[in-house]
């Protein structure tokens, strides 16, 4: 089935450019906010209002940014609540070396169809997204009318070969299920940025990685060398829920996952290290955990996911900056970006998961508000583009007039910031 971009629904969102610099808590890095805007707004006026959830973002071949989020008609609730969720998209054009002031109107990328009562096209949500910078854009969705538990969502693969102008869709539920015999897995591809290798390529196509969240306390890690047309099993990692991954300087894969169920809490880290130069075999490290219980920080028992992004600039030499975003508290509040410095000449440190359970430094708290899921990508100018769920609702109804029932309504906010070593 082939879909073209669908109806234009919302006028452009203007960017606010207000550069502001500050130093991280330890004084090593400088954070500069370059721009921010609300890309998708859930301006709820009743408990039955439409809500936006679950951000995803990627950089297209011309440098433009594409942002996606769930549109949840009449609700903020997840897939599986009889709601025809659609994944909506907007782009921020990149022209003459700089980003435009206004996002394009939104369009339906993966549309949940009111005309069907079940099956793949009933709903699409929780976008997992990547762009290879050559015009190919991959979107993996949780689809259908079932969430998790005894059943599981279906898996839809949307692929575009012209930077999102047109999409083709296939049902990948059975091929994915066959990799781990189904059953205990929910088939839920962790939303946000699909990890794309900077090092490993096959026939000019970068290797990509996803974590499939289990309904039991572990995840299946899959990889693909053909833009998600087929998948292979890299192994299992746990004990945790939604996971994010980033590639380390030698091609190793860093795994970070939240824990807040099954009597577990904190954040899990593991490292997959390849043991041959052709990147065909390797092994997972032991699991290590940051655990701060009901406390704040990266080890808090988060009920939502964040993002990781490894940055490098030529002037930094052998140093890389690893960013990790997450809500600062277990209650989905104050999304914050943390960081660690990685020296590529010290692989004995960062191939060991012990390295990642200590000494994360707050770079910037991005909001004072209730805020939840977030995802990051590097833009064309080497800065960071982050999308996060953010809202200023309170139980007194300062933004939304109907109290605690606003609990799941978020705006999807875009922030652009730069990172450099402090002088």
Protein model, in words:
The chain is mainly beta. Helix content is 2%, strand content 48%. It has helices spanning 173-177, 347-350, and strands at residues 2-4, 20-23, 29-40, 51-59, 65-72, 86-92, 94-95, 98-99, 107-110, 124-131, 137-143, 154-160, 166-171, 185-189, 192-193, 195-202, 205-214, 218-224, 232-238, 243-247, 253-259, 266-274, 282-284, 288-290, 307-311, 319-327, 335-343, 361-365, 370-378, 384-391, 411-421.
Q: What structural class results from the helix and strand content?
A: mainly beta
Our estimate of the beta-strand percent is: over 45%
Helix content range of the residues, please?
Answer: under 10%
The order of strands across the largest sheet is 1-13-12-11-10-15
Let me know the largest β-sheet: 6 strands, mixed
Quaternary assembly: single chain
Chain-averaged pLDDT? 84
Low-confidence stretches: 1-11
The number of helical elements comes to 2
Distance between the termini: 54 Å
> How much is the radius of gyration in Å?
20 Å
Kindly state the number of beta strands.
31
Shape: globular
């Amino acid at each position: 089935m082939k879909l073209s971009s669908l109806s234009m629904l919302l006028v452009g969102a203007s960017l606010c450019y207000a550069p502001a610099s500050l130093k991280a808590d330890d004084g090593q890095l400088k954070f500069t906010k370059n721009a921010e805007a609300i890309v998708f707004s859930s301006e709820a006026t009743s408990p039955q209002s439409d809500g936006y959830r679950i951000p995803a973002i990627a950089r297209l071949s011309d440098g433009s940014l594409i942002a996606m989020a769930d549109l949840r008609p009449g609700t903020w609730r997840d897939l599986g609540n009889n709601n025809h969720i659609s994944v909506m998209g907007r782009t921020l054009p990149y022209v003459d070396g700089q980003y435009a002031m206004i996002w394009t109107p939104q369009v339906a990328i993966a549309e949940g169809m009111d005309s069907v009562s079940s099956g793949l096209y009933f709903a699409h949500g929780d976008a997992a997204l990547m762009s290879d910078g050559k015009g190919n854009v991959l979107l993996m969705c949780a689809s259908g009318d079932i969430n998790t538990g005894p059943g599981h969502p279906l898996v839809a693969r949307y692929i575009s070969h012209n930077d999102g102008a047109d999409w083709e869709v296939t049902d990948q539920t059975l091929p994915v299920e066959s990799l781990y015999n189904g059953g205990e897995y929910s088939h839920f591809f962790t939303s946000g940025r699909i990890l794309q290798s900077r090092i490993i390529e096959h026939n000019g196509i970068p290797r990509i990685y996803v974590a499939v969240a289990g309904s039991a306390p572990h995840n299946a890690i899959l990889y693909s060398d053909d833009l998600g047309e087929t998948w292979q099993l890299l192994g299992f990692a746990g004990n945790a829920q939604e996971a994010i991954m980033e590639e380390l300087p030698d091609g190793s894969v860093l795994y970070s996952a939240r824990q807040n169920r099954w009597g577990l809490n904190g954040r899990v880290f593991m490292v997959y290290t390849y043991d041959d130069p052709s990147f065909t075999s390797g092994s997972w490290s032991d699991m290590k955990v940051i655990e701060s219980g009901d406390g704040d920080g990266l080890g808090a028992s988060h009920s939502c996911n964040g993002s990781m992004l490894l940055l490098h600039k030529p002037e930094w030499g052998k140093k890389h900056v690893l960013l990790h975003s997450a809500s600062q508290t277990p209650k989905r509040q104050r999304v914050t970006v943390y960081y660690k410095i990685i020296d590529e000449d010290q692989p004995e440190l960062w191939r060991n998961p012990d390295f990642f359970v200590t000494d994360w430094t707050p770079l910037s708290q991005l909001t004072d508000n209730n805020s939840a899921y977030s995802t990051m990508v590097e833009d064309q100018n080497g800065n960071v583009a982050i999308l996060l769920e953010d809202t200023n609702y309170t139980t007194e109804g300062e933004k939304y007039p109907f109290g605690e029932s606003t609990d799941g309504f978020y705006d999807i906010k875009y922030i652009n910031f730069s990172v450099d070593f402090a002088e």
